[in-house]
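Box S2. Input/output pair 1.
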Amino acid sequence: MIRSKQIQRPQLVLVVDDQEINRDALGIILEDDYDVIYAQNGKEALNAMHEHIDELVIVLLDLMMPVMDGFEVLETVRNDEDLRKIPIIVLTSDKSAELRALQMGAADFITKPFDAHEVILARVGRIIELSEGRKLISSAETDKLTGLYNRNFFFEYADRLYRYHKDRHMDAIVLNIEQFHSINDLNGRQFGDRVLKTLGEEIKAFMNETVGIASRFEADRFAIYCVGQDDYKSLLKRFQDKLDEQFPEVNVHLRMGVKLWAEDTEPVVMFDRARAACNMTRGDYQNPLMIYSEEMRLKELMNRRLLNDLRLAVEENQLIVYYQPKYDIQCNPPRLISAEALIRWKHPELGMIAPGDFIPLFEKNGLISVVDSFVWKQAAKQISLWREKYGFTLPVSVNLSRVDIFDPALTDKLVELVRDYDLKFDDLKLEVTESSYTDNAKMLLELIHNLRTMGFEVEMDDFGAGYSSLNMLSDMPIDVLKMDMKFVRNIEQSETDLLLVKLIIDIARYMNLEVVAEGVENNKQLSLLQDAGCNVVQGFYFSRPLPPEEFEKLIEKEIELRGRK
């Protein structure tokens, strides 16, 4: 029966339990704040829910009952579009049943013997508030394509698993499909949907074998919160094999990041770190799995600090441009003809930071243009200063990153620098990496053509680092080809590497390109390159990168040598 209350009608609550003592206990707790009706089993509960469907704000449901148990009620409610709008809190003394109930759509649970009155009232009030605010997502409101939980539902229940099962070690897994947007573009949206659905089905099959929940967060990102697995490499292989089997005609590559269970680490933090680990494997087809570690956490903190400190580093002149000389080796003695500008960071607290620790970071986050602009200006200024001091013009090469290439104001910025420091266009040489060609070949080719038309010389840096093709080389209008140092490294021991170097030099000569070899460290390498016809080299054999004041000694030495002739 309904126990009537004040003039303003209280909200209606259904208590379902086969034990009268439990029904009475809950009634006493709730009756001061709510109208309460009762049912003794699942069948009566469903009848009451249908009868009062527009009035019920919540159901407190026992799981173990005769006639029809609580799980059957949850299953029925999950499949009924009207009933599933009513939130359900389950009543249980069996901790192993809690997860199953949550997976079937329960909003929360109350442990038997019952918690303190205030705790029960707080939980009931919170769930009602969430439901009325349409913040609670029912289990039926899943991702329509894959059938996995949506993001809100997933985190709501992951948080409960974390809070109420502290002894259960749950790991966070994030899965991504490599270059999924390209798969859609090349094969169509319907094909991409089939890929997502297939992966979702395999994830659901895995979830049926373990304890946990899974979600499709967005686009091609999937999340799994499950008890720790012994072998995540095998799990990733399982998902990858399924996609390979279903889509043999298309290369669909998965990458996975995992954050292992750690005490007092909430799900939202765990998945943030799993996502960071997953992102670190982007483009690495040989190592598509990354387990988040303490080392990664410290690196992540360092990366955040470097990103935050960059602007101040520019303002306070913490960034320093070093110069590595380039020598013409087809004359005797080798002749200093130019230099490459290389950035260094002298942090006031962290000391000297290696370029490899911040350049890739800034490239990834789009801040590399700040560094590049600084280097261009310093290099242009230094060319001017050395010309004024020594009457000697030393051209300097500066790097154009992928971000710079997409800057519509790039040409204007470079022209302004040349004019501000009264340089010739070929005094400031421009290096582009061959990998830039793969991002937007048409835009890059147009940019290089325009720059060369104005008088800039363009060098292709890191040739052979992984993307090279003769077709690209014939398309790109460049002046200089810089061989990646990996070609030079083994030419003393490897006949194959030496033959490759000779082949590159022959091709460059045929195309009227100058060749620069990077990473020359000893006299033997130098001799082999001279014999092969290489024009210019740079590397530790001649000098490491130097700050301007030390580099000036090389300029003075060169002036002295030229004066003797």
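Box S3. Input/output pair 2.
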Amino acid sequence: MRKIVIAVLLVSLMVSVSHSAPKEIVYNLGADPRTIDPALNNASDGANVIVNIFDGLLRVSSTDAPEPACAESWDVSADGMTWTFHLRDGLKWSDGQPITASQFRDGFLRVLDPETGSPYAYYAFFIRNGEAFYNGKAKPEDVGLSAPDAKTFIIELEYVNPLMLDYLSFPVFQPARNDVISENPRSWAAKPETLISNGAFKLESWKHGEGGEIVLVKNPEYWDAENVKVDRLRFVFINDENTALAAFRAGRIDYMGTIPSQMVQMLLKRGEAVSLPALGTGFCDFNVTRKPFDDVRVRRAFTLAIDRRIITEKITMSGQRPAGGFVCDLVPGTTDSQDFRTEGGSFLPERADVEEARRLLAEAGYPNGEGFPKVSYKYNSNSGNKAMAEALQGMWKRALGVEVELLNEEWKVFIETRNRKDYDIARDAWIMDFFDAGSILELCITGSAQNNTGYSNPEFDEAMRKSAHEMDRVRRINYMHDAERILMNDLPVAPIYFYSSAVMQSKRVKDIWRSPRGFVIFRGAEVL
């Protein structure tokens, strides 16, 4: 009898222990983020941390539509120029302090403040006097943001924005704790003790560098905490795809989107990986502010020398498609029957047009590459980017007779290098923030913080300005078609392929949401 009692007690203890073990998911983020400050980040790795630790007025739903988050409802004036957002009851920060409407005002103003240097400040130019404030022509109190009480946040518009709710669900638009940020405006988001957040998870620790990790834990103060089923997230930094795959197979990673290109087809056929749609374009930047790429003939020659089909079939091999334009597939067009890319047609051949490329380079003064200056192609370090760089180097050598030096840099250094335009040709890629062509075309607007090439064309800028202010859907999209035609004539960028995402997920987890826009969201995920 005593043995039976002991056995029952042991079973009970085992059940108790198994239930109390934290439910953890490990995700390979790839790179150590440069920042996870919502106002300063413009990279997908940082965004994937931010969407899991912060909540704005709205958030991205599992159908990629904006849905209520901190704001439970909103009203719109008859002329569409004033939006009043009503915050939920009982909203709290991760340290237990209440979230107020004035903190949303603080967060939006911080994005617009030129001292902040937010790369997404232009997303807030739809707010009355937002652009004027950013340009030093208005004061904070002139901006159309007000909080008449703790639960009411009012936004007055400069112009009616067709994407306003999408913008407000984007990671840049978050409330701000000025009492914390003012102490360390550049480093507050780097340490758990000062990174106070309001999302499904909160930062527990951050070990930097290759082999490091960000650890997030469930935020008990989150307004929707009862629906968060995971206790702990570990975002590990494994840059090498082969190392990441080995870790996945060893059970040390539950979810990853960095698969060795030569393995993707086999893994897809076996069902070990799945291919998901993605809104993104991989491309090269040309530094148009320095010779020889200030000459459009040189840029076009280099662009036409690229064999996009070889790159997608032999280098990337993950379901990517040769890019005939800057705007990728799947982006809505003027009708339901055709997307933007199909409507716009193809500006570039899938196969290299060597003859035309050589003709253009000769016309620019470099027949068969003779007298062409020494130039380099910069890229951030990993094996996939290295293979791409070597392929491009070979194509430019064979087609044009030019030598291009390959230079690789660690991710954080590379981002700064590219932003400073300290390059000749640079690797670039963009996962679109919204299902809208403007989400990638706006990278090339004169003076944009995201404009890495130094490109400027008033006709392009005007077409983009018209699209941003146009509420009629067909006219708006046609303005963006005009903008893309101008861009593809000038070619400050060389589109190479349209993205597709191959991911691997452990059978021990479910309901991780990967958006075609690149967000990986864990608030609804479960450990089985």
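Caption for Box S3: The radius of gyration is 25 Å. The domain at 277-501 is CATH 3.10.105.10 (Dipeptide-binding Protein; domain 3).
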